[in-house]
Amino acid sequence: MSRKILRVLSLIFILNIIFFSGKLYALTSQDNLKYEGIDVSRYQGIIDFSKVKDAGIGIVYIKASQGANYVDSNFELNYNNARANNLKVGFYHYLTATNVNEARAQADFFASIIQGKMVDCKLAMDYEQFYGVQKNQVNQIAVAFINRLKSLTGKDVIIYSNLDNVKNTFNNTVASTGKLWLAYYGNTQNIINTSSSWNTYIGIQYTNKGRVSGINGDVDKDRFSTDILLDSTEIPEDNSNNNEKENIINYIVKKGDTLSKIAQEFNTTVNDIAKLNNIQNVNLIYPCQILKIYEKTFNNESSGSNIISYKIKYGDTLSQIAKRYNVTVQSIVDLNNIQNPNYIYVGNVIKIEVNSNANNGIIYTVKRGDTLSEIALKYGTTVNKISEQNNITNVNKIYVGQTLKIY
Hints:
Layout: H1 3-21, E1 25-26, E2 35-40, H2 49-54, E3 59-66, E4 70-71, H3 75-84, E5 88-94, H4 100-114, E6 123-126, H5 135-153, E7 157-162, H6 163-168, H7 172-177, E8 180-183, E9 195-196, E10 203-210, E11 219-224, E12 244-252, H8 259-265, H9 270-276, E13 290-300, E14 305-311, H10 318-324, H11 329-336, E15 349-355, E16 362-365, H12 372-379, H13 383-389, E17 403-406
Helix pairs in contact: 4-5
């Protein structure tokens, strides 16, 4: 055998080693896609799910949320009506994160929207646009979102994306973290032996121009294997704080408010506010509307104090949070076992021990649009008490950035 042939064979051998050690797989045909499905959002309008079921659809994936603060306006309606017609239900979140912290925060948000609901299918991360993020970080974002969501819900998570991303972006770590729901509108025979980090898929979205009885206009149509189904169906409520008490306060909606913004401010969830106030469309609230909100606290009777939960928001620092609740940074660090007080994560919930004695109070920073009557209503006190405690002579005159002590 000539040296040239030996070199060629050696090169082929080396390439095979590289190929298989990198665990690149070839997509194979999926012969057990037994469930016909659709995935829906507000774009499908009002859906008659009884007709959808009669049309042979078995699974409905419902868009729940997008980004860190958007809830699909038809989410609750689609969920309730699909369940009422005994269709198998799945939820998906459209991921827009550009770093790992944002990915975790979006997982928190998604979990808060779907908590307490019944779900039949694996939760889905819809990740198809990367907003200029580099490939390596895209994979880190995907893994961070999936792992966070799994830890919050106890449910398996799958990845929805298109063939180009599957072939060229997602790596083996992502593939080992979640199974694949592939978007591909051509002949599936054409994707057999396509190199990717997955060797098969458990669902395929085969058209975005589908027609189904009960839906006006186009709808995405899918086929799923039995692997799409979960073993258990309930998304648990967040019961991580077993000693918590909930007090209902009133909040007056201001111009520019959203439910997600209000939920963040009061360390609760959009879903909880919507349920308590019987809100059908979570994207529709109006100025001067009064919302009832659960304010969560934790009893600590032995120390004469309450431990409240606080969800970290963009721009927060421990010093700002400490000032707001009239406590020290060190007390927050000690209570939450924080290793580096300069490094906190958006979306994480921390505990803050505040003195329950009336003479301690809290510090409130006036925001644009605030009035003393609104602040008093929010904290269960009166305008006169706030004005007396802060030496305010004109109760109609407060200014943005002013700090008020409220007892």
